[in-house]
Amino acid sequence: MNQHTIRVLNIYHPGRGGLEKLSYLLSFELRKHFDVQSISADNSLFEIWKYVNQSDVVLIHRGKILYKLLPFILLRKPKFIFIHHFMAKAKKKDPYHRFIYSRVSAIIALSKRIAEQIKENWQVDASKVFVLYPGIDIEKFFRSENQRVQVRRKYSIADKEIVLGTVGRICQEKNQKLLLESVKLSGKDFTCFIVGPVQENKYLESLKVTSEKLHIRTIFVPEFVDNVGSIFNAIDFLVITSKNEPFGLVGLESMACSTPVLAPDNSGIAEVISDNEDSFIYHNNSAKSLSSIIRNLAESSQVDILSMSKKAREKVEKNFTLSKYAEKLKDIIYGVLR
After folding, report:
1. N or C: which end of the chain has fewer CB atoms below 10 A?
2. Domains of the chain, with CATH numbers?
3. What is the mean pLDDT of the chain?
4. CA 69 – CA 103 distance, rounded (Å)
């Protein structure tokens, strides 16, 4: 079968989050290899069924869509590939899930940790589970001194001021308070930059209170920033503070902008970071561990930081582009069609 006659349907999930964008952008890269159609999971069941019926392979990014496709799953036609973007801590060994997963041709996890959770908590054939780290658009995320100057000027940040930033929904799940507590514990005079749409207003207010109480200069941008690459360029280090981060796509985006990352050791991105070389890894939800790294940052030479920044960009260019992600997925698609 000629590769461009293989019909692939990508049922993406609309949204502004990193992994939602990944599920959407994937279609454009896969069109280099296959005849690809894409449809939003929010479309009517009739529309989705129509496209599924015309496809050889269907990519699914959320488990809840599986039950809507039950007639096709029963027939094992077309082939279904489930790209799982989240943790897999819940037990799914009941007859329904056992049957559904037996009919799926491949399950793709964003990290080794998630893959192990799937094998442990779901009733699946381990040979069907693959680890495929996500990729990003490096044409969109790149180093820009111009963006750095503009954003810093907008928020009155001095050129030499060291800024630690978080980017993501403002809510308890994202745990931004950990950054404020860690900066205070470090004893260093760093500025914090907290960016992202507000999911919990009470939590935002508690962050502001904590910032004032701890006397930490904190800039809040409580909204979705379309050109988030400009934020990565404006800060000196991105800090991922989530207690349970499936991967942390913002980390790759930040590294592509030559901005190193401080990531918790239980996050997916920690599996691809070279600690103390292109970014840093700290103990999950530990202000003591994170503050130790922050304290060391203040004592790092500019030469060391520049070297780390260069290595961060190089790693993403070499291993984590959207095109490389699509290439590896292409091999899995060929595998399920054999």
Report:
1. C
2. 3-135+321-337 (3.40.50.2000), 145-319 (3.40.50.2000)
3. 95
4. 11
